[in-house]
Structures are given as C-alpha cells and as structure tokens.
Write a structure and sequence with these properties.
The protein is an alpha+beta fold and 241 residues long. 53% of the residues lie in helices and 12% in strands. It is built from nine helices and seven strands. Strand 4 (152-155) and strand 5 (158-161) form a beta hairpin.
Length: 241
C-alpha cells in the first residue's frame, strides 16, 4: 500500500524484530509463571510431608516411653544430632589457640551462633573453648524460629536475607534444598547435606538476653552461663531472638 511504501525498510525491520522480542518475552514470562506455580505446589507438598514426619517421630517417642513404663523399665532416647553453639565472651585476653578454634567455628563476634553436627571432633573443640561459648541441643521450634527470624544466607561471600526461596535454590539447589522448609529439615535431622546447609547459613547475630547475664565465667552447672546447657539452650535462645 501507499502507507507501507512511505515507511523505510529499516524501520519495518526494527518493528518486526521488536514484535519478535515482545512475543519471546511474553512466552518466557508465561513459562516462568507456570514453573513458579508448579514449584510452589511441590514446596507445599514437601512441607506437609515434613510436618507429618516430625509428628510421627514425636508419637513414636511417646509410644516407646509408654511401652517401657508399662514393662517397668526406661526408654533410652536417641542422642541429639545437632548443636547450636554461641559465643558469649569478647576478644579480651584470648589465647591464640582459642582464637583459632573460635575462628574455625565461625564465631568471630560476641552473640554469634552456628549449627554444628554432634560428633567427637566437634565436642573436643568445644571443650577447649568452653569458657567463651555456650551450647546445647535446640528443639525443632527453636531451629525454625532462628532461621525464619534471624536467617541470612551466604551468596558469593555476601550476607543476603532469606526473603525469597530463590536465594536458597541458587546455592543449594544441587543438593535438593530449594526452600526454607527444606533447609530447616536438613538442619533439624542432620541430613546428608547438613555441612553445605550449615555453611550456607551466615552465623546468626543474636541480641543480648533479656534480663542480662548472671555470671559468664562460671559453667552453666555452677550457676553461670558457659558450657553445655543441653535442652535448656532453647529457652536461652528465646531470650535473644
């Protein structure tokens, strides 16, 4: 037509190219939307499966306790698999060896906390720095609260808040950890990818406990704050979250 004849060929090519780009972009956005929807559905299913697993575990322990009591004996509960370790003292008068161990544990500042797997080498390291730390076996609720309230991930050496599951998937996707619930499950059960999951979490930065400390230098069993407080760590973390 007369109108097309007046339009330069370069402009027609540009329009055609822009239309192709817009169509490709729309198709990509539609695919991303569908993928996101499918991912969310899968995440919900996995979260439900985890809740079921946790409940069954609790029921099994209650059942085994009752059976043991009925027989007039005791049920020996399985040992804890996960530790939460937190630094409670600063950097004054630190022995070089103590400083090195605290650095290895990633506890560089006061009130920094990390998750560790319970094993002999870790427990031996903790004994050497016991006056400077407190640790124990956190329950599932405490692990959830720490990750949801104070959780930050390490992405390319940067401290990134866990506001989006994409942050987790980017780093831990290869290990099958794609959302916060996967991360919590891996930490709580000390799964096969616990090391990668724990290293991905930036050391937690907690506040001073409500009401302050009593005596930092004494061990917990002597009425102080340092050392192993076992299950009592959960109530202590609650004061600092």
């Amino acid at each position: 037509t007369m109108a097309d004849a007046q339009v330069p060929e370069s402009l027609l090519k540009k329009r055609k190219r822009n239309d192709a780009w817009a169509a490709a972009k729309a198709a990509e956005a539609d695919k991303a939307k569908k993928d996101h929807k499918a991912k969310r559905a899968a995440m919900f299913k996995r979260a439900e499966a985890y809740v079921k697993e946790y409940r069954e575990k609790e029921r099994d322990i209650v059942r085994l306790r009752r059976e043991a009591r009925a027989k007039g004996s005791f049920y020996m509960e399985p040992g804890a698999k996960v530790l939460f370790v937190m630094r409670i003292r600063g950097a004054c008068d630190l022995h070089p060896k103590t400083r090195t161990i605290l650095k290895l544990l990633r506890l560089r500042q006061i009130h920094n906390g990390v998750f560790l797997r319970v094993n002999k080498p870790v427990l031996n390291m903790l004994k050497k720095v016991e006056p400077y730390i407190t640790y124990g076996y956190p329950n599932l609720k405490t692990i959830k609260e720490l990750i949801y309230k104070r959780g930050y991930g390490k992405v390319n050496g940067q401290r990134i808040p866990l506001t989006d599951n994409a942050v987790i998937e980017k780093v831990l996707g290869e290990q099958g950890i794609v959302c916060v619930e996967d991360l919590i499950h891996e930490i709580a059960t000390a799964g096969p990818n616990f090391k990668q999951a724990a290293n991905f979490l930036w050391p937690f930065k907690l506040s001073s406990p409500k009401g302050g400390y009593d005596v930092k230098r004494k061990h917990f069993i002597e009425g102080g704050q340092a050392g192993n407080r076992e299950e009592a760590i959960s109530s202590f973390i609650k004061k600092m979250c």
